[in-house]
Amino acid sequence: MAANESAPRSHAGTGVTPLSGVGSAVWYDPNADLELGEPPAAEAVDPDAERERFEDARDRARAELERERERTAERVGEDEAAVFDAHKQFVDDPQIIDGVEAAVDDGLPAEHAVDAAFEDPIAQFEGMDGRMAERADDLRDVRDRLLRLLTDADRVDLASLSTGSILLAERLTPSDTAQLDPERVAGFATIEGGRTSHAAIFARSLGIPAVVGVGDDLESIDDGTDVLVDGEDGTVIADPTPDQRERAAGGRDVEIREEPVATADGRAVEVAANVGTLAELEGAVAQGADGIGLFRTEFLFLDREAPPDEDEQFEVYREALAAFPEGRVVVRTLDVGGDKPIPYLETPDADNPFLGQRGIRRSLGPDADLFETQLRALLRAAAAESGTLSVMFPMVATVPELEAALETVADVAADLESEGIEHERPELGAMIETPGAAFIAEELAERVDFLSIGTNDLTQYVMAAARENERVADLRDPCEPAVLRAIERTVAAADAGDAWVGMCGEMAGDPDLAPLLVGLGLDELSMSAVTIPEVKAAIADLETDAAEALANRATDAATRTTVYEHVNTTTDQ
After folding, report:
1. What is the DSSP letter of 189?
2. Sheet holding 185-190, edge to edge
3. Which residues form the active site (predicted)?
4. Predicted confidence (pLDDT) per residue in 123-174, tens digit
5. How distant is the alpha carbon of residue 367 from its chain centre?
6. 257 labeled binding residue
7. pLDDT (tens digit, 9 = 90+) per residue, 71-98?
8. Does residue 456 have a known ligand-binding role?
9. Could you say which of 87, 198, 423, 566 is catalytic?
């Protein structure tokens, strides 16, 4: 790498967080200790022993991935943690296993066989376009994990970087990014990568300034160089000037709006935060959230030997409401099953857990007692604070499911009344996450106060592209016309049923998509707190007529490419 120069040097990439940070460059090479060297002669290799070593590495890899998934779910979010389910699938991929075993039979040690078996699948993904090309990083992550386990190589502890570090790397895998501590890392920049890469998604969730896809020019920055990472403009500046440092320290250009926002012609849109723990409330308030649009209550049930009791849950919900005394807190009832197992609950293995018993299906079945306890705590909390409590049921697919959930709420309220316990009926809503729910959204809206569109699940089900299957990742784009039409249908149904309609998921937090979502008629958008100021700013600049015209063009489009052309034309104006 070139020697330091005194003048600032700017390198352009793709900004993925609306944040800036200044710190000292630290280059990261995850493969520094993974040099395999030449393999021994084939006759010196014992195929049976090497296959046993490979199986042992796979077992340990699965255990590691499960631990990392749990940590990531707690620190970052369930949606982000789902990538580790995909990694477990790669560990068990028959094509890769067959490739390793064939290479071992040809006389290669297990580590060299793993390296060889992953070569073609990685190259195949790299030859694809868009998101599919970024899936090569997932394969590299799994390959490198197996190689470390087979060679006993040390793994760099990214969680222990010095405070004020700017991490530079060719690329960051999900396992790398999940380790990063926002209190220590001032930002990161990578040579490769795009806005939809896992590193980018994790950066937004963790609130870390980040620029990806800078290219080989990034290598001109030496270890220890002072670096500014501007995740909004998409620039990386070596040896920034005092003025540049001051601008970065002053925060982003966008105003943090503590008050609710409306379009330029006066249409109000609620902008809320997705949270999983009470620790995230402070950040949501600081970023100007109007309230909580998705409180993922499953985090209360994780990493413990028994479920939280009614009083513990009551205090958590009460504290969330207290953080937004004039706002709304939308709580999702326990959403487990599928990719969210809880150790002390019976969650039988299923061939396709995403199409199995999860969400409201479990709450009305094996988890009925937990559901009633949670509802008791929620109804008590609704009466304890001045904010508006809303409760939504996940994975609703039929009218009878919704009616059964509503009947359970009524029964719980009657029990509390008979016990003389203060309580209040919260707003009640259904999540639209399946094509079935979208098709019957009008009937659902007639029975509830609101609908909330979970775009992550809705996209995977509409497009038949499982969230844990990286080979179909390119189809998991909420701007696919089929998904947009499901959203359009849901909004129309909510209007007909006199219910408000919100959205939670990655789509809601993209400022570039705010005109489209406002045009579609969403009343509320909920997202990672870090993107709230940008989304509010985008909404404030909108004219409703122009947004509606964009939505009409987008829902009439035949391809995702055309949708993005319409979106980009609007945002560039």
Report:
1. E
2. 9-12, 235-238, 226-230, 20-28, 165-169, 185-190, 210-212, 14-15
3. 198, 504
4. 887 776 555 566 778 888 899 899 989 988 877 788 888 999 999 999 888 8
5. 26
6. no
7. 887 777 766 777 888 888 889 889 899 9
8. yes
9. 198
What's the DSSP call for residue 161?
P
Active-site entry in 11, 423, 479, 504: 504
Nearest to 362 by CA among 403, 401, 313: 401
The number of helix segments (H) and strand segments (E) in the chain equals 23, 17
Is the separation of the CB atoms in 65 and 88 below 8 Å? yes
- 401 annotated to a ligand binding site: no
Phi-psi label, residue 326: left if phi above 0, alpha if psi -120 to 50, beta otherwise:
alpha
pLDDT at 297 > cutoff 80 = yes
Q: How far apart are CA 316 and CA 204, in angstroms?
A: 25
| 457 in a labelled binding site | yes
Q: Can you say whether the dihedral through the CA atoms of 447, 453, 457, 463 is positive or negative?
A: positive
Give the C-alpha separation, 38 to 112, whole Å: 9
Long-range contacts of residues 458-466, Cβ cutoff 8 Å, at least 24 apart: 458/432, 458/433, 458/434, 458/483, 458/486, 458/487, 458/505, 459/483, 460/354, 461/354, 461/433, 461/434, 461/435, 462/435, 462/438, 462/486, 466/352, 466/354
Closest CA to 501 of 512, 490, 513: 490
Burial of 349 (0-12, 13-18, 19+ CB in 10 A): exposed
Long-range CB contacts (within 8 A, 24+) of 2-9: 2/220, 2/222, 3/222, 4/222, 4/225, 4/238, 4/239, 5/238, 5/239, 6/239, 7/239, 8/237, 8/238, 8/239, 8/240, 8/241, 8/244, 9/220, 9/221, 9/237, 9/238, 9/239
Phi, psi of 426 (to 5 degrees): -80, 170
Residue type, 374: Q
Q: 184 to each of 160, 164, 178, 206, how far by Cα in Å?
A: 8, 6, 13, 12
The rounded distance, in Å, linking the Cα atoms of 175 and 572 is: 35
Ligand-binding site membership of 467 (annotated): yes
* Residues 92 and 325 sit within 8 Å (Cβ to Cβ): no
Left if phi > 0, otherwise alpha if psi is -120 to 50, otherwise beta: which for 164? left
And the tokens for 385? 């604070």
Q: Strand, helix or coil at 525? A: strand
Lookup: tokens for 119: 């070569």
In terms of Cα–Cα distance, which of 307, 325, 305, 320 is closest to 275?
Answer: 320
198 carries an active-site annotation? yes
Would residue 87 show up in a list of annotated catalytic residues for this protein? Answer: no
The answer to whether the CB of 284 falls within 8 A of the CB of 273 is yes
Which three-class secondary structure state does DSSP give residue 75? helix
The residues with which 237 forms a beta bridge, in sequence order, are 10, 228
Mean pLDDT of 325-335: 95
Using the structure block, give the residue that is written with the tokens 């306890």. Answer: 373
312 pLDDT higher than 90: yes
Distance CA 508, CA 479 (A): 11
Q: Backbone phi, then psi, for 165, in 5-degree steps?
A: -80, 140
